[in-house]
Design brief:
This protein has 154 residues and is α+β, with helices and mostly antiparallel strands. The chain is 23% helix and 42% strand. It has a single domain (4-150), classed as Alpha-D-Glucose-1,6-Bisphosphate, Chain A, domain 4, CATH 3.30.530. The chain is built from three helices and seven strands; from the N terminus they run E-H-E-E-E-E-E-E-H-H. A seven-stranded antiparallel beta sheet has the order 1-7-6-5-4-3-2. The radius of gyration is 15 Å and the shape is globular.
């Protein structure tokens, strides 16, 4: 299994408390996900994030192809970081750490994702052209949505 890493850092002109409240509220995930992914929660997604919470959703991974994705919340450090890990879903492995740090004019948010693609050798061959490209597109959309919502650090 080849493990890949995607890291994104974004500075937001809001306090760590505001960033934590937004990102630790599962209902906000849909608003920062590209519409063409057709992200839909399955079951209850209300309330805040907490250790051992399981979130279930359905996403489109290709035209007319939708899959369920179940993640578990781990390693919650209130106001600082949390991890979501895939229980079942489109990846062979998924570990996404969210970190929030105070900076002079707001909050530095770091996403560090470690992931592996399914389908062995074929998946690894297609990774740079399909999976990596799609993940970068999703996180670019997220970056732009966060700028629209919160602005930029001066």
């Amino acid at each position: 299994m080849n493990l890949h890493t995607l890291t994104q850092v974004q500075d937001l002109p809001i306090s760590v408390a505001e960033a934590w409240t937004f990102f630790s509220t599962p209902a906000n995930l849909q608003s920062i996900t590209p519409p063409d992914i057709d992200f839909q929660f399955i079951g209850d997604h209300s309330g805040p994030m907490y250790e051992c919470r399981i979130l279930r959703y359905r996403i489109g991974i290709a035209p007319l192809v939708r899959v369920n994705w179940n993640t578990g919340i781990k390693a919650v450090r209130e106001g600082h970081s949390f991890v979501d890990e895939q229980i079942s879903g489109p990846y062979r492995f998924w570990h996404h750490r969210h970190v929030f740090e105070a900076i002079e004019d707001g909050t530095r948010m770091t996403d560090e994702i470690h992931y592996a693609v399914p389908f062995g050798f074929i998946g690894d061959l297609l990774h740079p052209f399909l999976v990596r490209k799609e993940l970068e597109r999703i996180f670019q959309f997220r970056r732009e949505e966060l700028v629209r919502r919160f602005g930029t650090v001066k």
